[in-house]
Amino acid sequence: MKTIVINPMKDPGHISNYWKKEKFAIVIVFISGIIYNVGMLAGPIFQGNLIDDLVAGKSLKTVIFTALFFVVTITLLQVFRYIKRFYIRRFANNTSAVMRFMIYNDLVHKKERQLNEEKLGSLMTKTISDVDACVEGMRKFTTEIFDSGVLMISYITALAFYDVKLTIVSCIFTPFAMLCAEKLKKTIYGYTTTYRKAASEIAEITYDRIENAALYRITGREEENLASYDKKLDEFEKKSVIANLWENSMQPVYNVIAMSGIVFVIVMGGGYVLSGKWTVGNFSTYATMFAAMAFKASKTSKLFNSVQKARISWKRIQPYFVEYHKTDKSCNVQKGELQVSIQNLTFGYSEKEHILEDISLEADKGQWIGVTGPVACGKSTFGKLFLGEYKYEGNILINQKNITEYNEFERSKLIGYLGHSPQLMSDTIYNNITLGDEGDISKVLKLVCFEEDIRTMEYGIHTMVGNGGVRLSGGQQARIALARVLYHEPEILILDDPFSAVDENTEIKIIDNLQQIKDKHILILISHRLKMFDRMDQILVMSENKMGTHEELLMKSPLYTKLYQLLENEGGDDFE
After folding, report:
1. pLDDT tens-digit series, residues 119-136
2. How many domains does the chain have?
3. What DSSP letter does each residue of 382-393 carry, written as one string?
4. Domain that holds residue 352
5. How far apart are CA 519 and CA 364, in angstroms?
6. Contact between 268 and 169 (Cβ < 8 Å)
7. Which of these, 366, 248, 226, lies nearest to 306 by C-alpha position?
8. Are residues 183 and 299 in the same domain?
9. In a domain? residue 326
10. Does a structural domain hold residue 558?
11. What's the order of all strands across the beta sheet hosting 546-548?
């Protein structure tokens, strides 16, 4: 499969820059478009000449020569039409790819808390539907400059060559078709805006239903939720129908208005033929040109509506177009010795209330650190602080250097983080693990006990996992996410409750396997499931802020002792 290299662009918030970026394609479109659309005059002219040759009784040789010349000319014009259409589509495809790339680049550089403020349905609509609508409007605009604009100018000029007076009279209706579209654009804009908002809302509700289906069923809210969903879906369908009706139903109206001048062509042109001023061929040429020009005028009117839709979509996605952030890969991380030092770590989401208070610990390469505690004590927050997303008091030092002093690339090489959600892409198992860094994944599959699963899958490592991993079980999703962390070999592994969806026997096997690579990492395991905590070198009990080994904490930590006792009584999973 060919890899498409997408080059980011500067100042992506100005729509004109997308045409500038594809200037080579636009130049080819310009040249081929001019040749094709001006050359299209040859069709009606040759048609008229053939009619005159037949009426005049010219020789068969002359008629055949004229017809062959006509066919060759039209064939050459169609070649230029193909070139124009090819590069127009290339412009659209490249622009769509760049827009999506810029949006994704913006999203991946947002902090988690910023992403949580966005609704998933709205994001998906903006990144898929709105980009498509915007690019389609840009493509139509670029196309119609030639297919309508140049062609209309060419036809009007040619019509005036045949008769200026008739051209003025017959073409007087054309501006009215355009004016009609211009007047209706605000109405169409309003309905399209409403439809786009409804599309985002229905997408968000759909994702909510999928993600929380079990919750609604358990709490007896499934029927109520379904009724609400059906109501929203019905509203969305109505808004969609109205928006599409206004956009598409006006086309026949534009056609009728623009074609009204054909009456004058028939009456006045017919008079010219009867008086001998025109030949039958001249009349045929003029009528054909006028019909083509009027049709293009009505299409130009529709173009206003398409551009209006693109304008709406552009406004929705424009905030996501920021300067490309190239990853800083000037990595100064030295392999070898590794030490983590946490000194007086204090953090709160507000200044008034701290959820982490004066935490300190030391860890060297090869050590496993367990972190546990009751619900809402800050266990997950503790792990996320290593990602550099939040400001905190105190220090988190890696090799005597604060994590905030490392750039993003350096942190990605140092720290591998696995949170509650596996965060799988709708792609293959292989791509979900490698993330583009191609290599052999068999080792990490063995570490996470996924080899047997792979053997049962028809496409093996190339099996598609579905949206968010929907085709896999919860335990399979968790193990693929863990394999991804291990594949990239970070020095520090932070695993936040990674085995909640994995059965106990598999959990034990994975921990045994991780023991094989223990001397390569510092592992921080955050969990309230203490089955494996007797293997930890140090354990931090969050709410008590106590450190020690498993044996030491059983003697000095009432909370840890009770938690472990509940586990022994097969109730550990319900402790929180």
Report:
1. 554 565 556 678 888 888
2. 2
3. HHHGGGT-S--E
4. 339-574
5. 10
6. yes
7. 248
8. yes
9. no
10. yes
11. 415-418, 492-496, 522-526, 368-372, 538-541, 546-548
